[in-house]
Predict the 3D structure of the following.
Amino acid sequence: MKMVIAFIRPEKLEDVKAELEKVGIYPMTVVEVKGRGTQKGIEIKYRGVPVKIDLIPKVQLELILEDEEVEKAIRAIVKAAYTGKPGDGRIVVIPIERNIKIRDYYEKLK
C-alpha cells in the first residue's frame, strides 16, 4: 500500500479529479497549501510596481492506494496537471505500514 501525494496548480484540481475518476480512483484528501519550488517564487506587477510572491498557492492531493493502482494514478495526475510551464507540481510516493478504517476497526472490537 502506498500514499501518493501530489502538489498541483489550484486551477488544475477539477481536471485531475476527472482524470482520476476515469481510471477508477475516487478517494482522496485535498488540502490548500502554499509553497515554492526551484523557481523560488514569482514576481508580478501590482499597480505597475514589481511584487515578489515567495510562496505560491498550490493544492495538495493525498491518495491511499494499493500498489497496483499507483502508476495509473501518477499517469492520470500528470496528464491532467501538465501545462509545460514551471510550477506544474510534484508527485511523491510513500509506503504505508498500516491503513485502518475507523468504522471497520471499531466493528471488530465489539
Summary: DSSP finds three helices and six strands in the chain.
